[in-house]
Amino acid sequence: MLRRRGDRFPLFVICVLIVSTFLSPCFAHALAPRNDNKNSTLPAPISVAPDQDWDGIDGQWNTFTLHVGEPAQYVRTFISTASQQTWVVLDLACMVNKTDEQTNVTTLERDTPCYDGRGKTFNHTASSTWEQKGFYQLWTEKNLGLDGNGQYGYDTVGFGHPGEEGPTLKNTTVGTLITSNFWLGHFGVNPKSTNFSAFEDPSPSYMTYLFRNNLIPSISFAYTAGARYRFTAVLGSLTLGGYDTSRYISNDLTFGFAPDNERDIVVGVVGIHASSSTKSNINLMKREQFTMYIDSTVAEIWLPTEVCKTFEDAFGLKYDEETNLYLVDNLLHETLRAENPNITFSLGQKFSTNSTVDIVLPYAAFDLQAKPPYRGLQNESSYFPIRRAANESQFVFGRTFLQEAYLVVDWERQNFSVYQSSWIYDAPQNIIPIISPSLTNEANSDSTSGARHLSTGAIIGIATGSGFSVAMICFGIAWWFWRKRHIAKAKAKYEEQAAAAAAAKETPAEKVEEPPISPIQDPEEGTKVFPKAELPADTTSRPELQTDVKAGDPNSSSSFGMPSPAIEVENTERQIFEMPGDIPTRQEADGRQLSEKESMMVRERLYNGVDPQGLPSVSPTSEEPPRRLAPVSPSEVAVVNRRGLPNVSPTTPRVPRDGAFLEANDTFFQPSRAPRDGRYLEAEDTLLSPISPLEGSTDSKSRRRFSYE
What we know:
seven-stranded antiparallel beta sheet; 8 helices; Cathepsin D, subunit A, domain 1; protease; disordered C terminus; eight-stranded mixed beta sheet; Aspartic_peptidase_A1; aspartic-type endopeptidase activity
């Protein structure tokens, strides 16, 4: 069977969808948005080069250089995991009054030791891109009592020294400070926005700008502070959008963010132990578990007071009430160096996992030098970098902890990992990107996976192609159900038409006789009058009383008004089965009843109709007289029996009706019988009488019968 033209349209649509499904990844890749200076693939993580300098008045810490403003001014800063802003030291912080002895004129001059010691300063008036915002509090570390004010604005910020600059962004938030609570500035890797006013939109962070400009694959970072005491000095490591596998020893523990937005990178401290050359397994945590916030803005480790006292007992530390520091004199310093204790912090996450990770810090990580004006010191002194915390909000792991720990934070997935730093000398760098969940499937972009990731265009193409595939499958299923239903309807219609055609070809069955609606012939169906199957016969006399039939009587079959002779035929007529019905009543005054033959003719005309063309030639041409005579009145009845019957009435009832008092000669309910032996019986005379004899009856209510038959 040939396919109809209308059936080709769904097939054409399916072909178009299939072609578009295979070509959609190419189209999506071609139409994917691109920046002029960027590839269509995912950007690589940014590995920020550390300085060769070690700065600070609370220890010696590796720094990272930034260039701020236009023209660029280069400053050295620390890394802050808690801040979302860039802080630089204002040039006024290192300006001193100097009086000329000859002219006695006082002028502001730069204090070179301060300028170099604070990582160089920034003069916002010399920057052509500076946009002033105003003076605001330095909110970060306010919970530790480190507060102050800063002058904020927007300016251009980038990484690196001249000739090795990294990505540079404009209109980033910059805070300038003078207070000595923060001796150097810092670069914040937290992606939170800065709110200067409730009437202004928040200012995005530097990390957010990097991701929006397609400069990093995700909002994430990895950081370790470096250790000057390792080998000849191991520099710090900062990776934006990924991590360096050569800098840590892997473990399987992943921490989730804490619900507090100000303290999100929180770990649980399960245990603190120490071991030295003279002692082993010293328990330094004589209290229940607690949590600590990892914050590289500060240098020290802030612990509960009772834990600090266990450190005092274990290592002979002395707390200085004036500076709130554990100052170490020369004797204690030599003793601790000789014992060289290792302090192990066991970290976990309560209610989440029973797994723990141990971070081991040697005594060299705690052997720091404090310089004036830190904490009001007048002279440089060694100190043990632990601090007494007043409450849980001050429990902090500072840069001291991150000398031996490697921190990887995924801000978008809200999880992080803490690893023990690896000290393999001169290990080659191995940077692994962390792909943003907004760019790829979560299952294929695990933050610690080293698998190669697809490009942005390929990801968009796969997503678009998958969408077209799903749409095509849904359309195909819907079309299949629609087609099945359409075929079923067409098949049913075809079978119905075939059955009707077959029925039209076959001989129609005998129709059920129904009363005619109209005696007029239907030209499409032919005549409905069945010819009477009768044969001509001689006229015979009927032994009935004759009455004159008036000419023109409609009931008469003779045109002259005389009854036609009866024509008897053999039983050759086709039998007509019909329901018994009443003989129609003549609608005329004083009419006679129809005979049985006339009643049959009337019924035939009612059921078969009247042939307007006249009777067929096979029908008899002679007309027979009516078989039922005119009604006879009682006065015309004559007595024909041999005896008289007085008091005869055709309507006089006779009781009982059940025939209990029937007389012997009453033949109304008795069968006829023939005379025996040629004798005449009086009772048999009733056969010739239409009136039953009532002689001998004494019943006053006797019934008298009358018969016309």
